[in-house]
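> tool_call: predict_assembly(chains=two)
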Amino acid sequence: MLHGRYFPDLVEVMSISTFLLGLAAVLLLLGLCRLLLPRLVPTSLVRAGVIGGAALLVWEAASRLTLASPILLPPPTVVLSNLGLMWSVGYLQPHIIASLWRLLFACGLAVVTAIPLGILVGRFGTVADYVEPFLHMIRMAPAPAWLPLAILWFGLGNTSTVFLIWLGAFFPIFLNTLTATRRADPAQIETVRTFGGDVFDLAWEVIIPASLPLVITGIREGIGVGWILLLTAELVSTSIAGGLGYMMEDARTLLDAATVVSGMLVIGILGTLLDAAMRGLELRYMGRLLP
Amino acid sequence: MAVPFVVGILVALLVVAPQVSGLGFAQVSSGEGSVIAPGSLIEAARFVPGRRIPPLVFLAAVSILAVLLQAVRRGSGRLLPLVRGTTTMLIFLIAWELAVYLGLVTTILLPPPTIVLQRLDALWLNDYLAWHLLATFRRFALSFGVALATAFPLGVLVASVPRAFAWLYPVINFVRMIPSPAWAPLVILWVGLGDPPAIFIVSIAIFFPIFLNTIRGIHSALPIYREVIRTLGGGRWDEIWSATVPCALPTVFTGIRIGFGLGWVVLATAELVAVDSGLGWLIQVAYTQVDSPAVLAAMTLICWLGILLDAGLRQLERRLIPW
């Protein structure tokens, strides 16, 4: 079901007046919301709307004036209509879900493995001496270069993709946990020891609270890296299991630039949302933990 | 201080660029026959056994080295972390080699170090590997040059227009959130396979860290330095050149280093997708032939080259920006 849809023939392209009216309506709505609910709609969103709208207009004009070939760079009207069609026939949603599921699963795996290991290595200086250079070496091998090996090991499909994302997301989380664990205040550690706390008390009362902000930063970086690797892996490996990268690569082989550009738009939007969510989480925890 | 650096990179690009544009099959195979076309050579290389270190000799040598290292550790305290790190790697090598010979791992999925080394030796024949290394380096240098030559001036421009960054940031952030490999299908549609899409993808990856850090660096430059320059009778140009840019340079260089690392990673992707030479391509071809020793050999090379380049860049940073 997910393979080989060719949309351009089916798309009913919206007219230019609809496009302009829609753009104006969105901007007006944005402005209105800004006036009525200034707390809910930050200035950056309005700015994004204005600049983004201008970019869409220029893009449309360039296409109308045939400065760019409409086959290679379809105008926004075509792309948006295409996006609408893909959504309404239910073609886009499975790809989005497949991609996001992979990303979240792999990043969850990275969190579960990297944080305990980071605390372990960070708490025991000798272990760090032994393990760190080795891990740094593995880290320096670009994760995409692991892809062929991962495919040899796990075959095409989900497993190799998840492995790759896990590999990429692991190191930022691990290294940040390591640094954070080392930063725990020795005075606090001594206090817990003095009052007869064991290792678990130490971890729970001192090390985890002290290191949480940095660990969350690490998770954000890890998801960022994972996001890049997700697309890389999907372009090359995932094949029939779907995903946005696969959708774009598939569309490229059919010379369906509208779907490729639609995919890029969706990826940009999802990436921005993901980053904003992680940033929000980070700020919230920073705020809670800092005195 | 930064001028000779930038000029040097630009000159290097001028020297490198003409050779890169003609870096294809035709040119190589039309030579005097000293260099063989890649396609035929990888076939040939598969049947060249290469020189192999006997596994037992390898194991013995690595073990002796590991033991000898333990003797060194009593000498100097400063070297201790280095010794420990190296020990882990040596033990890893021993375990890897042993695991394969004890039948714990299938050779085709994880070939042991001796076979990887043997493959490396075979790949080295007839300058095959050197040719691909050169292709990778040229492509990387070109992408890096393109990114630096666009990101730094653009960053200075955006940072020097008041409020421009605040307006542009949402859109920049949106574009930044599209991973550079995701550009590949579109760019390949635009310009076809070959060097241009690869260079485009890598430049995009390098562009954003340098661009954003340039802006950040210039914004963080303290106004007091500019006022000092103005008090001493400097003009607007002096202000930018003697106060703002030196203040911004450490941040810019951080961006350069982040971009450098990111670009090195993305280069491997770009070469997997778009081109017909380079280490990434070598991995891809080896993978399609289930030639896992060559995959691992190329991976190891990419890894160590990345480490070396990063270390070199660190040194350069220390030389160029001692403040």
